[in-house]
Design goal:
alpha/beta; Multidrug efflux transporter AcrB transmembrane fold; TATA-Binding Protein; 3 domains; four-stranded antiparallel β-sheet; two-stranded parallel sheet; 12 helices; 8 strands; elongated
């Protein structure tokens, strides 16, 4: 299936304008990165705390932001996980001690704002030790005789049931009736001494500053290794200049994508790096399709100049390139619009990268091959002219000598 028959667009004539646009975009990306001191790295790379909070009802995102703003040190990010009533609270910290403080303050601030307990213990956020400590005296007063070990086991079974069977969030005390050891007397004590708060802390992830720096370095090396491997492969399959063109185009795509994130003040996380690496492969694939058609056409049209062959090849692959890019673009657009904050940045990287990658396969990779060919041809002509000049002088001198002899 083709969108249209082979067009007759003169891409060679458009390449200087395309190259100028690329230079402007690259320069703007570099300027933005320099002005802002580099990309805005996510917590994965800076180091910090990620607290996963699950609410019983739809989480009030703006209220969470307002409650945490000014109470927790460092930059706070709040993301909603679509469809799961969960949010991710992230904060940047510079030391391990600050990470522990931030984690405690996030929990306490959310509890004070959304789960006022009136001095009671919250069964949805309490740990085993805290629950053991809180139930010891009330159970004794209620006449429930438990040894210290039995009390710890009871608290452990309640916490395990909450986390494993109810995904960390109890909705009613009746749910605990089936837990071994929760007798009617124990249930009565729980009702008197505990409350069921509207949220629970599902998970806490801590990324230390050193780990973040190590991840940044590994992300950079992964990108460089990918580009180097592609250079070797394309140079082996086609020519070295084709490899240079493809790698420059991929670097161009990655730089502009990062530049867009810098312009929009978006964070670059591990998922964005994964998206950029995927886009590098996608861009190379587009470029290889064009170069492969160039190689096929050179076998058939070996008398035709390379720029004309490249132009013909781009026109022949244009329909396929647009269809492939359009279908991928629609999928990325759906992720961007419907995927929620967790997938939003990754989808944005795909959207930008697909458009720029399709563009660069013609106006960067192919343009470099054509420019290299034209430069080589001019050098050959210059070398031929330089070699022909002494011969002409020798012939002129010989004619003068012959006339002198006559």
């Amino acid at each position: 299936m083709e969108l249209f028959r082979e067009p007759k667009i003169d891409w060679i004539r458009l390449m200087p304008a395309g190259a100028l646009l690329s230079l402007v975009l690259v320069a703007a990306s570099i300027a933005s990165l320099v002005a802002k001191g580099g990309p805005r790295w996510g917590i994965d790379f800076r180091g910090g705390t990620l607290v996963y909070v699950k609410f019983r009802e739809q989480p009030p995102i703006e209220q969470v932001r307002a409650a945490l703003r000014g109470r927790v040190p460092g930059e706070i990010t709040v993301q909603e996980m679509t469809g799961s009533r969960e949010i991710i609270v992230g904060t940047e910290m510079r030391s391990e001690r600050e990470l522990d403080v931030a984690r405690r303050m996030i929990t306490e601030t959310l509890a004070a704002r959304f789960a006022p307990t009136g001095g009671k213990i919250d069964l949805n956020t309490a740990g085993r030790e805290a629950l053991t400590e809180r139930l010891r005296e009330p159970l004794q007063r209620a006449g429930v005789a438990l040894s210290e070990q039995q009390l710890q086991e009871l608290a452990g079974r309640i916490v395990d049931f909450r986390d494993r069977e109810r995904s960390g969030l109890l909705s009613s005390f009746e749910e605990l009736a089936g837990v071994p050891g929760v007798t009617p007397a124990v249930m009565q004590v729980l009702r008197q001494e505990a409350v069921l708060g509207p949220f629970t802390i599902r998970q806490v992830e801590i990324v230390g500053p050193k780990v973040g720096a190590d991840l940044r370095q590994k992300a950079l090396m992964a990108t460089l290794y990918a580009l180097a491997g592609m250079l070797v492969y394309i140079a082996f399959r086609f020519e070295f200049v084709a490899g240079i063109g493809a790698v420059v185009a991929s670097f161009h795509d990655a730089l502009i994508t990062i530049g867009v994130f810098s312009w929009l003040n978006r964070e670059i996380s591990l998922t964005v790096i994964a998206a950029i690496l995927t886009l590098i492969g996608y861009s190379i694939n587009d470029t290889i399709v064009v170069f492969d058609r160039v190689r096929e056409n050179l076998k058939v049209r070996f008398r035709e100049a390379l720029p004309a062959v490249v132009n013909r090849s781009v026109n022949q692959t244009l329909s396929r390139t647009i269809m492939t890019s359009l279908t991928t673009l629609l999928a990325a657009l759906a992720l961007y619009l419907l995927g929620g904050p967790v997938l939003n940045n990754m989808a944005l990287a795909f959207l930008v990268g697909i458009v720029v990658g399709t563009y660069s396969s013609v106006f960067v990779a192919s343009a470099i091959v054509v420019a290299w060919h034209n430069l080589s041809e001019r050098r050959k002509k210059a070398a031929g002219s330089a070699a022909a000049a002494p011969v002409s002088k020798q012939k002129g001198a010989a004619r003068k000598s012959a006339r002198a002899v006559k």
